[in-house]
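Suppose you are handed only these lines of text.
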Amino acid sequence: MSIFNVDQESCKRDGICAKECPVGIIELLDKDSFPSPMERAEENCIQCGHCMAVCPHGALTLTNRSFEEFPLVKRDLLPSSEVVKNFLTSRRSIRRYKKNVMSHELLEDLIDIGRYAPTGSNKQQVYWTVFEKPSEVRRLVPLVIDWAELMAQKIPDQAIAQRMKSLVLAWDRGEDAILRGAPHLIVVHSQGDLPSAHADCVISLTYLELYAASKGLGTCWAGYFTAAANVFPPLREALGLPEGHRCFGAVMLGYPQYKYYRRPKRNAPLVTWR
Ligand SMILES: Cc1cc2nc3c(=O)[nH]c(=O)nc-3n(C[C@H](O)[C@H](O)[C@H](O)COP(=O)(O)O)c2cc1C
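From them, the structure of the protein bound to flavin mononucleotide can be written out as follows.
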């Protein structure tokens, strides 16, 4: 059975599917031929669906896929670049959260959008662990504090040691400088030996973070938590990561207590023009 079917009535033989296939497994033998799979197409296809999605005539269907799985792009709903620019330059890290918890459906909705991030070779091996209950999030913080205390004793770099000490001192004063009292935490992880795992996870979580901001939610990347997650066994155990997985990122999440009225000031970009 062929890896894709071509409706010869609607196919215009324009070759767009072949040109857009990222792994080059579609060919049109001459200007009168219809697209056909090249040798070993099946094993090389990455199931990205570009061929189906780019055909203006809906003439090509992957054998194991249906058009329902590729809904039409709603062009009239796409934001203008001005809107996107305003949005991207307004997002801030949120470190004070309301006590309200988000609904399970809302958390699911955020994760659903995380799936649309690109992944190396379309592997889609991004795993999400969602700490939905605030009590579960709170349970993690003292473990990161234990790690920070250990780091402060062990590492020679004074600056890092001082920072770790300040986290512990804050904790002793009753402040959570690790997860900032956020009601939820979303952690991304994947197989440690998958070449694109780090980028895949970080991009997916960034999609989620930006979508959350568009819904008026607050997020903040949990860098200390992520650093501890892979090296401190008690935290790793509490996270329950599968064997061979690494944690590549985590964001705190909840309803922000305060609004930001101004955009951030950023340094000039560090660019080399060639
Ligand atoms: C990878 C990464 C890790 C971070 N870790 C922490 C963290 O552990 N705690 C925290 O309060 N903020 C953390 N942040 C937030 C940064 O401090 C913040 O993005 C930066 O100061 C710029 O502020 P803005 O995000 O509001 O524009 C982290 C950000 C990134 C990208």
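What can we learn from it? Strands lie at 4-6, 26-27, 36-37, 60-62, 127-131, 184-191, 218-221, 245-254. The domain at 4-69 is CATH 3.30.70.20 (Alpha-Beta Plaits).
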